[in-house]
Amino acid sequence: MFRKMRRADKKAISNEDTIKLLKEGRRGVLAVAGDDDYPYAFPINYYYDEKEGKIYFHSALAGHKVDAMKRNPKVCFTVFGEPEIRDLDWAPYVRSAVCFGKAQPIGKDELVAKLKTFAMKYYPDEKLVDEGVASSGRAVQMFEIEIEHMSGKEVQER
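Above: the chain sequence. Below: its structure as tokens.
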């Protein structure tokens, strides 16, 4: 169902390295099937729950992204690692992870806990997280991406 990576023998990274990239990344690009079948891709903050094997992100209660995922829950999510200089200072190596899956809103009973876990990745302390969740928790929703296929690769940009 999902295509194999072209030249995987030279470019693929291990599943462990792909998961490490997902765990450490701070922003990724989520792509959905937008209006009139045009792709709609946008940067998001997220967190990857390794135990559950899912990606979580927050959203407003309404908008283009939410409408698109209601129509078609199939999404693609991509994360890029930091460039790494090794042998040629002008041609860095870059790793990326690509995940395909279905996005759906999480239930209200899980919302506060997931929102807090998400925020702890980005805020400097728990007090600020608790204040933020208390003040805007009702105006957001959390989505989870159930990953159906993921791959990681490394390329040298030259």
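The chain has a mean pLDDT of 93.
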